[in-house]
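hey so u asked for the seq, here:
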Amino acid sequence: MKDGIDNVEKRPEAGKSSAEEKDVMQESEVPAPFSSPPSSGFARRAAGFLRSLPREIAFRLLLIFSSSYRRAQYRCIGPAAALQYFFVQRVCRINAHVPWLVHWSSHVSGVEKIRLASHPPFPGYSPGQYIQAANGIQFGANVIMAPGVKLISANHDLDDFEKHLPCGPIVIGDNCWIGANAVLLPETRLGNHVIVGAGAVVSGCFPDNCVIAGVPARQIRDLGPYVGAPPARTVKVGK
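ran it, structure tokens below
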């Protein structure tokens, strides 16, 4: 009991701190002399550069050992994407028959019947695209195609599914944007600066400067002439 009383008597009053406790509290508020200072903008940039250095080296080696055509494509999409597409398409040989960049989940057939003015577009570049060019597909410059787009240039013969019916090509003008999961059917013709809504099923001919959408697709809005600049990195094809 005496020990207990002595201990109680030695405790400071509630709400008060001893001089030693105050000193400890003050010392805890002072940063340690060897603690790391906050990273500066330069330090963050330097650290980011060092982390990306192996990628940059690999990208430069890829450019050195690539043809001029492939080199222009890789520069168009940048180091990270270029290394991914190179590995899957040229090393793993998925879509290796296509001379331009194609995503590993996309399918491109009839490559020899696809006519391109420039890259972009890269038909099949976005995930899940299906490009069937049995009757030919003609692309203008600066065409954007979202994931899941289907371009089907030939129907099956109703009496023999192993045959495709001949017809005219699909024609897509300059500065067109085809939304996700849209389907373009045989002989579709889009003018310049045509925007196709997501999920549309398109057949027939549409004029310049318009928006089309729906199933079947129809013109829902007029547009003015396209005023945007060409993509910063454009690869001339001339096929």
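Residues 41-64 form the longest helix (24 residues). The chain is about 30% helix and 20% strand.
lmk if thats what u needed
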